[in-house]
Amino acid sequence: MSYLMPTYARQPVNFVRGESSYLYDEQNRAYLDALTGIAVCGLGHCHPAITKAMQEQAETLVHTSNLFGIPWQEKAGELLCQAAGMEKVFFGNSGAEANECAIKLARLFAHKKGLTHPKIIVMQHAFHGRTLATVSATANPKAREGFYTLDDDFIRVPFNDVVAVEALASDKDVCAILVEPIQGEGGLHSPDAGYLKALEQLCHDNDWLFMLDEVQTGNGRTGKYFAYQHTDVRPDVLTTAKGLGNGFPVGACMVAGKATKLFGVGSHGSTYGGTPFGSRVVCAVYETLTPQVLQNAHDKGAAIRQAVQNRYADKGVTLRGVGMMIGIVLPENMDCSGIVAHALNQYRLILNVTGGNVIRLLPALNLSDADTDELITRLSALLDDVFAGEVGA
Ligand SMILES: Cc1ncc(COP(=O)(O)O)c(C=O)c1O
After folding, report:
1. Are 24 and 30 in contact (CB under 8 A)?
2. pLDDT tens digits, residue range 14-51?
3. Does 346 map to a domain?
């Protein structure tokens, strides 16, 4: 009997140790982790530089509250804003909290303009978190069901559809767009080139906030610090979490331009946001996330994608994603329900399936040459089984 609320469908394995791209179970069996805790441990498990920073800070000072100055928070803010090309940051503890902060900023922006019923444009297949506001912004019906989501406060349009957003230009209640540059949970959808630019332009023309959710795509995941840096847009609000702490829970909401002066003293807060401990971790992550690591994420992601493409394109497989955000799209009629367990049990390979038929890989950004080869070997064996019909439901 477990005392835990039954909110998760868990695989029957307990990991007790992690090192680089491998996790070890209770029998000390090694599993190649191509998921990194859902895009969290981007630098691999227990990276020595992050562990050292944690150890030092745990022995020095963990928490003081935001009633006092926190030099490590200042430093983390500087490193993050410089990498992200943003002006100011608010630190929280998760992706959902970062997006809550963004939603509050948008509503405050609306309030200052005198709007009485502000609405934020969000996308079909979007995922923004599980708090009440962020689950309302999320599209997934399973996540929303029964929660009396705040449906009057969001307008949902198809992703990658500029015309649908243009059609809302006459709606005086709209105050912002919230969008993922690449939809992660929704099936690794990348929009067409020019989509984000068009949204940015619409935000500019209509005085809306242009808000990017980079909780999953940020912190080097796509081979740039932030995915939007593959384009020439500039967000007003940028949220992130996941890889930001390499496993330590921390989130951030950054602002630039017209979003910079919205919050003042007392507008927002968090007991745990930006503790000395969490901030020190962010600093260690950003000191370790060098341009070489970003280049590695780009190169290894391309190599994995190419290997799958070469071998399985003639079986109807297509590839999605950028850098170390890799989606392997299987033919639509395929039963994918047994793939995760088969990969785990037969090949000790950790991955997941999203959007019904998309195998999702989110490997470490610093994946070594040897581990890249190993990943391709195990993945190919898995896909061979899938196409031989040897993967049960
Ligand atoms: C794009 C995006 N936004 C927000 C979240 C929510 O983050 P968290 O689970 O840290 O609250 C996620 C989590 O998967 C995400 O992928």
Report:
1. yes
2. 999 999 999 999 999 999 999 999 999 999 999 999 99
3. yes
